[in-house]
Design brief:
Distance between the termini: 86 Å
CATH superfamily: Metal-dependent hydrolases
Order of helices and strands: HEHEHEHEHHEHHEHEHHEHEEH
Strand order of the largest sheet: 4-5-6-7-8
CATH topology: TIM Barrel
Largest sheet: 5 strands, parallel
Helix content: 40-55%
Strand content: 5-15%
Structural class: alpha/beta
Shape: globular
Number of strands: 10
Number of helices: 13
Length: 372
């Protein structure tokens, strides 16, 4: 009798402990599949050929190009723009220049028309009286070699320092000749400044990016690490204002995809600026009606881009832009724990976002790849 009673108590304790464990499940672990029954239209191939204006590719050779081309064909990607042209970390300025020349030659030999390359700035020695002159000269040489744009990484404004160890602001006067030269050469400048504003906010229950900061603690910033978010963004906008003859692509919607009123005001104020939609598709997916209105109103200023290259992640972009599906998951919970809704964009708007706007601002792109 005692043994039976002990066994019952043991089973009760095990069940109670299991229940407590379930109640104490972490937010990261809680991710139940939806029981909602609605029509589903997953999209694994874009409705129209598209340009990915925001990709990063390294280690380019014939094997890598063949793999990329095959994946692009499956996705219906017409042109991939590799923003990592200079290959920093591979030696001095001369070796970096050889790197971009070699990359352009490899792309042209094995997949002509399918790949384009943006160059980058070498900030070594910034603050020296000769830096601007050398940077402009290298930009001219890279464009002559086949580069079709300039990509500015978020390191400018965050961790690029001059020869005295000071942070280099995005709108530093020594950069003005570079922005002006890009305008003269007729190439766009795709610029990424700062990170989401929530990275500067307290990591607490009110921070929408709490999970991302927990899983990626190195992304947390502060007003002194290295400067306030608002200051870095203001520096970027000052560049747009100072150089109205230069075409800019503000990467990641300038971190305004969650505030489309501000995004619209930005485009209204700076007619030389376009938005890249890479890495912010989840913001559109949670406000489909408002986002659709925005895409229709600013259809000439929005350009498709993905950023991190993972072929299966494009499917969510296609589904958000093309369908009217409801309540489907995003592919990274720490980026977006909410569900997506499709915008169902009109075909003409899709064509502009997918390729027409890129054809307009990127010189030398093969228009024959795309429909009329």
């Amino acid at each position: 009798m005692k043994k039976q009673l002990l066994l019952v108590l043991l089973m009760f304790c095990v069940g109670f402990a299991s229940s407590l464990c379930a109640q104490e499940m972490s937010f990261e672990s809680y991710d139940p599949p939806s029981t909602l029954k609605v029509p589903e239209h997953p999209v694994t191939r874009a409705k129209f050929p598209f340009v990915d204006i925001h990709s990063h590719q390294g280690g380019i050779d014939s094997t890598k190009i063949a793999q990329l081309t095959s994946e692009m064909d499956e996705l219906n990607m017409g042109v991939l723009v590799n923003l990592s042209g200079r290959g920093f970390g591979r030696g001095d300025s001369n070796s970096q220049q050889e790197y971009i020349k070699s990359m352009i030659q490899e792309f042209g030999q094995y997949a002509p028309g399918r790949f384009m390359v943006f160059t980058n700035l070498n900030f070594a020695g910034f603050g020296d009286e000769n830096w601007s002159r050398i940077a402009v000269k290298e930009l001219e040489e890279d464009v002559e070699a086949g580069a079709v744009g300039l990509k500015i990484y978020k390191s400018l404004g965050l961790n690029v320092k001059d020869i005295k160890g000071n942070r280099v602001p995005v709108d530093h006067p020594d950069l003005d000749p570079v922005w002006a030269k890009a305008g003269e050469l007729g190439i766009p400048v795709l610029i990424h400044s700062a990170d989401p504003a929530q990275f500067w906010q307290p990591m607490d229950s009110l921070n929408e990016r709490w999970l991302e900061l927990k899983t990626h603690p190195n992304r947390q910033r502060s007003a002194t690490d290295p400067a306030p978010f608002e200051q870095i963004i203001a520096e970027q906008h000052h560049v747009f204002e100072k150089h109205p003859e230069t075409t800019f692509v503000n990467a990641h919607m300038g971190w305004m995809a969650n505030d489309l009123d501000a995004a619209g005001a930005h485009l209204d104020k700076y007619p030389n600026v376009n938005f890249g939609i890479g890495a912010v598709i989840a913001e559109f997916g949670r406000q489909p009606r408002r986002a659709k209105e925005f895409f229709i109103k600013y259809q000439d200023r929005l350009i498709f881009g993905k950023d991190a290259y993972n072929p299966e992640e494009f499917f969510t972009y296609f589904r958000v832009l093309e369908t009217e599906d409801e309540y489907f998951p995003y592919y990274k919970k720490y980026h977006a724990y909410w569900r997506m809704y499709g915008l169902g964009l009109p075909d003409e708007v899709l064509k502009k976002v997918y390729y027409k706007n890129a054809l307009r601002i990127v010189p030398g792109m093969d228009a024959s790849i795309f429909p009329e």
